[in-house]
Sequence to fold (163 residues):
Amino acid sequence: MNFKIIMYLVASLLLFSCGKHEESNDIAWSTKHDSVLFKRWLTDTVKLIKRQNINDSIVIYQDSGSMDLYKKYNVVIHPNQPITNIDVETAIWLLKENDTVPEEQFNLQFDINYFFDVGFNGKKHVCECEFENFIVKTSTRTTKYNFVKANLVDKKIISGVTD
Fold:
C-alpha cells in the first residue's frame, strides 16, 4: 500500500517537473523569437534611416537588443501652416495641451530621444520617447520647458516681456 502511494507521488513529481520544463522552454523560445524579430526590424530601420540621409544620432548596443535614436529640431512655425513632420506635430500638440502655442510666427527648438527595446509576445519592439531642450522663441520672449512623463512642465521665461 505504501509502495503505491510512493510510486504515485514520484510519478506526480515527474509529471509536474516535466510540465514546468516545457513551460520554461516556451518562454525561452518566445524570448529568442522576439529578439530575432527585433534584430530584423533593427536592421531594416537602420537602413531606412541611413537612406533618408538624416543627421540623427543612432546608438545600437553590443547585443543588438536595443537602439537609441536622437534627433534635433530647430524649425520656424508659421500660424495655420500645415505640419508634415510627426515629431514637430507632436511638439506642437504638447504646446496646445498646455495652452501655450504662440499666435504669431515662432521658432521651435527641441531634441527628441527615442528608446527602442525588444518587445514581448510577438511584438517587434517597445518604444519610449522624451523631449529635451524644448524652447519656444517669439519676437518678444524665449520660453524653455522641461519634459516629464509625457508632459511639458516647468515653464521658464528666459528673456522678453513677462505676463
Remarks:
- The longest strand covers residues 106-118.
- Residues 34 and 109 are 36 Å apart (CA to CA).
- Confidence is low (pLDDT under 50) at residues 15-24.
